[in-house]
Amino acid sequence: MSDDFMIDTDDLERRMEGAMTNLKTEFASLRTGRASASMLEPVMVEAYGQKTPINQVGTVNVPEPRMVTVNVWDKSMVGAVEKAIRNSGLGINPQLNGTIIMLPIPELNEERRRELGRVAAQYAESARVSVRNVRRDGMDQIKKAKNDGMSEDDQKLWETEVQDLTNKFIANVDKALETKQAEIMQV
């Protein structure tokens, strides 16, 4: 490959890695029948006039395998936190105990498992789209370099490199989805 035209594959790889990191965060928020503090990460509370992550209005704990608790710091925020959890779509019914909100995690039924599997598949597809968008950016860089005088051989080499990187990350997304769906379907 000629050094005259360098495509920043490190930047492309970093951006694809970002899509994977985002996917893992989204997967962590899907409950699998086991309590996890990360399942509340996407929940935003209407606090002090703006949307605030739940972990900034209280302490999230997992005292036992099927229970998550939120110890709300400001007594006036308990109702807002409870409402945010109810409206989050997690399918959890909060129980109040003073400033502590208890979230018992029910067993997942077959229908809910399938639904969570579909949600996981949507998250994975979103990650694939992100990876493909990064690939498109890389291919656009290559086309621009070709117009600026890059040789056809170099163009083919760079396109192959970008495509191989894309294939690697798409395979990682597929593997992560397969693992998450197996975890969801596990009884």
Automatic annotation (TrEMBL):
HAMAP family linked? RRF
| A single GO molecular function term of this UniProt record | ribosomal large subunit binding
Alphabetical list of PANTHER family matching this protein: MITOCHONDRIAL RIBOSOME RECYCLING FACTOR PSEUDO 1, RIBOSOME RECYCLING FACTOR
What are its GO cellular component terms?
Answer: cytosol
Task: Tell me which family the UniProt entry assigns to this protein.
Answer: Belongs to the RRF family.
- State any GO BP term from the record: cytoplasmic translational termination
**Where does this chain mainly localize?**
cytoplasm
Q: Which compartments does it reside in?
A: Cytoplasm
State what this protein does: Responsible for the release of ribosomes from messenger RNA at the termination of protein biosynthesis. May increase the efficiency of translation by recycling ribosomes from one round of translation to another.
Recite the UniProt keywords alphabetically. Cytoplasm, Protein biosynthesis
Q: Where is the Ribosome recycling factor domain?
A: 23-185
Q: What is this protein called?
A: Ribosome-recycling factor
